[in-house]
Write a structure and sequence with these properties.
The strands form two sheets. Strands 2-1-10-7-6-5-4-3 form an eight-stranded parallel beta sheet, covered by helices on one side. It has a four-stranded antiparallel beta sheet with strand order 8-9-11-12, with helices on one face. It has one domain (23-294): TIM Barrel (Alpha-Beta Barrel), CATH 3.20.20. It has helices at 8-19, 34-44, 68-81, 99-112, 128-145, 165-175, 186-192, 199-206, 237-245, 277-294; strands at 22-25, 49-50, 87-89, 117-120, 148-151, 180-184, 210-215, 217-221, 224-228, 252-254, 260-263, 268-270. With 298 residues, the protein is of the alpha/beta class. Strand 3 (87-89), helix 4 (99-112) and strand 4 (117-120) form a beta-alpha-beta unit. Helix 2 (34-44) runs parallel beside helix 3 (68-81), helix 3 runs parallel beside helix 4 (99-112) and helix 4 packs parallel to helix 5 (128-145). The protein contains ten helices and twelve strands.
Length: 298
């Protein structure tokens, strides 16, 4: 109960603020085995991990990765580490012909790890009709698992059904499916629509439609875009984080794919070797320090 003098709304917001999941994506650990990732993250002080299985972002994988036996292994590793999984990233084009069986398998895997949100892209505009055919059965399956599908704006420059906040909000309104919301990523906006959209303001505009959010900062150089700790890049993370603080019911994750960058054509490129662990852990601690400045209770 709120303490004396504290209004009911203020008390509810305080409780939500303390309890919401703030995650760190496993993306910077691309190339390391999951148990080692968890040990490192726990040692840095991370509480929630967002596993990432994204073509172009992470080590190659097949759909057999998401079989039940492997889900049990991952869940055992999570339980042993003390970390929890609220969000899970595993992007595909939901307008693919095989999207229903493929994404159902990934949703089953995510739910087995305890996830409540699974992030994916929507679909290329050319796949619109198939997306509209697929999304109903996928949303039904998500709801049966207690999952929400978080449609994420892409960063590759290719015309998608969700390119910006206005398009994403219109899409979920059109669909009218409670299990389908947004997972907005301002870092993707920078390479997807360079110089055409204010990524921070677009991110804030998208928040009412979000089930989850990616806090991601970027820098641009002559070769394209690289990713950095929030507040150290070109995005107005102060404005975004302030808006997140005002929305205590919106969970989010910091995503920092250190091994990957985007070329000037917005396509992802991964370094030949994993980033050294000390470098990753220094970035993890910097991310957590950033969070604690804004969310000292979390």
């Amino acid at each position: 109960m709120p303490s004396g003098g504290e209004g009911e709304d203020a008390g509810r917001k305080r409780v939500q603020h303390i309890m919401r999941a703030i995650s760190i994506s496993a993306a910077p650990y691309d190339g390391y085995e999951f148990p080692r990732v968890l040990d490192s993250m726990a040692g840095c002080g991370v509480r929630h991990v967002e596993p990432a299985f994204i073509v172009g972002y992470t080590e190659p994988f097949g759909e057999d990765t998401f079989l039940p036996a492997n889900a049990r292994r991952y869940r055992a590793w999570l339980d042993a580490s003390g970390l929890r999984c609220y969000a899970f990233s595993s992007h595909i084009d939901l307008g693919r012909d095989d999207a229903i069986p493929v994404f159902k398998g990934r949703m089953d895997f995510a739910a087995a790890l305890g996830a409540k949100v699974i992030a994916t892209n929507a679909a290329l505009r050319s796949n619109r009709d198939r997306f509209l055919s697929n999304i109903g059965p996928l949303a039904e399956h998500a709801a049966s698992l207690g999952l929400t599908i978080g449609l994420e704006n892409p960063g590759n420059g290719e015309a998608n059904l969700f390119n910006d906040a206005a398009g994403g909000l219109a899409l979920i309104e059109q669909l009218g499916l409670p299990a389908v919301r947004l997972n907005y990523d301002p870092g993707n906006t920078m390479s997807h629509r360079p110089g055409r959209i204010d990524a921070a303001q677009d991110a804030i505009a998208a928040m009412p439609g979000c089930a989850h959010f990616h806090l991601k900062d970027v820098r641009r150089d002559a070769e394209g875009w690289s990713f950095t700790v929030p507040g150290q890049g070109e995005i107005d993370c102060r404005a975004i984080t302030g808006a997140l603080k005002d929305r205590p019911d919106l969970p989010f994750a910091i995503e920092l794919p250190l091994r990957m960058r985007r070329r000037n054509d917005a396509q992802p490129v991964r370094a030949a070797e994993p980033v050294p662990l000390p470098e990753i852990e220094a970035a993890m601690r910097a991310c957590l320090a950033y969070l604690r400045r804004w969310f000292p209770d979390v």
